Amino acid sequence: MARLLRRSKSSEVRVMIDRSRIWTGSLNETALAGRPKPSAGFYDTTLRDGEQAVGVVFGVEQKLEIAKLVDGLGVGRIEAGFPRVSDEDKEAIKAISAAGLKAELWGFARAIIEDVAAVADLGLKHLVIEAPISDAKLGALEVAREIVLKRIKDAVAFGAKNGLHVAFFGVDSTRADLEFFETAYKTAIEAGAIELAIVDTLGIACPEAVDFLVRRVKSWAGTVPVHFHGHNDFGLATACAVAAINAGASWIHGTIDGIGERAGNANLPEIALTLELLYGIQTGIDLARVRDASKRLRQIASYELEPWKAAVGRNLFIRETGAVAAQFHIPQAIEPYSSELLNTPRGIVLGKKSGAASIAIKCSELGIEAPPGAHARLLAEVKKLAMAKRRLLSDAEFLELARQVS
Ligand SMILES: CC(=O)SCCNC(=O)CCNC(=O)[C@H](O)C(C)(C)COP(=O)(O)OP(=O)(O)OC[C@H]1O[C@@H](n2cnc3c(N)ncnc32)[C@H](O)[C@@H]1OP(=O)(O)O
Ligand SMILES: O=C(O)CCC(=O)C(=O)O
């Protein structure tokens, strides 16, 4: 049975992955044998930290559409926005709040009373209160440690007094002095925070460091839920998220496609794919929808993705090489999992790297009956043209070559 991962509301989702379509072999199972299978909820921050990607500006309608997309994926929590940024952000939060989404909605605020009041005024019940806690950040802002502790205490206490469910989020916590880290988080708890987010603002923590920090916080925070908010500056955001979950984190922050500042945020669909397929952990994320969600977000935010990007890349199930085409009839020989899990077709394209099987597959796909010996000539022509044009061939070009060769 699927584990329920939408933690916050009664209308929980169950998304079952057809495990017969996962062809990852038994190595992971052997290596992970006997280990517990932890679970964690997904906290989407596409609307706030995702919008921090350079040049991205979401309008109210777009934020609402993105919130619905993310909700449709099955995340437990959505960070609806940071109201102090603009009136438009406030309008977007109102629109999202009125949309009747299944996910729990969260607001974002600095450790500043006016920021917290802005979240409360919009009727949100849950918020993250953030404050810098590394000396690098505090130094840049010219804020002393004692001052930030006071700001944390006052802002969290104000939120708690106003009935808000507060998570404290220590910006740059992975570069903070460990003792001061603990002081800052304990200050937040004493002031009324009931959840804690560990924040790898610059994506500098290796997975082992994330494991260390999550376990360290859990050792003194008891049952307080711990979040992990990661960035991808070293390409390790997914590995760090997995490390955080294995160490006991309850909530993983991230965005669709990992959209965000610099190298981006942790990529929630990629983490879901990893947990489901490599760790056998059910996430509640509907993998069949992630490619459509990614495609729509790319249209809205006007960015391109590498075609080989995990989970959502355009080329994941498109194959050119002849050696792979020769095995195309047995998908598990050439794929880690079935394209059907991501609700996308597989296909063969023709180019420099085509082989005899590529030609046979394409002929059958296009209903071309080539005479004996024609396939070899056709293959030679395909390679020649692809090298001359330095690209793949279109079906129309292939049909023309087939006509010339027959
Ligand atoms: C700043 C953050 O960490 S939020 C995350 C990043 N996100 C963004 O920047 C979103 C877009 N940003 C914006 O729209 C704007 O930059 C805003 C609304 C966030 C800030 O506006 P600004 O005009 O730059 O700053 P504002 O005058 O409101 O606040 C600066 C003060 O906040 C303090 N401050 C900054 N971050 C924090 C924090 N997390 N907690 C407490 N105080 C903080 C500064 O020390 C400064 O204090 P001072 O006035 O005593 O010197
Ligand atoms: O200070 C910021 O950029 C916002 C907080 C955040 O999302 C982070 O620290 O990763």
From TrEMBL:
- EC number(s): the record gives 2.3.3.14
Superkingdom of this entry's organism? Answer: Bacteria
- Entry keyword set: Transferase
**What InterPro entries does the entry give?**
AIPM/Hcit_synth_CS, Aldolase_TIM, PYR_CT
Q: Which reaction does it catalyse?
A: acetyl-CoA + 2-oxoglutarate + H2O = (2R)-homocitrate + CoA + H(+)
GO function term, MF aspect, one: homocitrate synthase activity
Q: What does this protein do?
A: This protein is a Fe-Mo-cofactor biosynthetic component.
Give the protein name, as stated in the record.
Homocitrate synthase
Organism (species) = Bradyrhizobium manausense
User: Upper lineage ranks?
Assistant: Bacteria, Pseudomonadati, Pseudomonadota, Alphaproteobacteria, Hyphomicrobiales
